[in-house]
Amino acid sequence: MLLGLSTEQRTAERLGEILDVGGLALQQARAEYCQGGLHLRGRGVLSMLLALDPSRDDRLLAAGHVVGLWGRPWRIDPQTGRRGGLPWRDPPMSFALPPAPAAR
After folding, report:
1. What are the sequence ranges of the domains in the chain?
2. 57-76 as b/e, with b when 16 or more CB fall inside 10 Å?
3. Do 33 and 40 form a contact (C-beta atoms < 8 A)?
4. Strands, E assignment, the chain
5. pLDDT tens series, the chain, 104 aa
């Protein structure tokens, strides 16, 4: 869900934009992941992780927030000890997903 591999196409595209991953890389990772089997699913996850820019870890945090895996991420300034938000004011709410169905 976090990487957009097991979600519907529209949601995957929105997560791809949040994660700043090219459409072709996302399509290839989704294709591997959806072929089934642990080995192919693992290859899909790995190819997606390799497509992420490691200096943009804030985007992974924002994606987790947008899909409802965790609350709003914060950063702590090491010099002042103050809490601050991500580089944007809020996670890109234009990418907000509908609420997940309630657990039974």
Report:
1. 9-95
2. eebbbbbbbbbeeeeeeeee
3. yes
4. 75-76, 83-84
5. 788 888 788 888 888 888 888 888 999 999 988 887 899 899 999 999 999 888 877 888 888 888 888 888 887 888 888 887 665 544 454 445 445 555 55
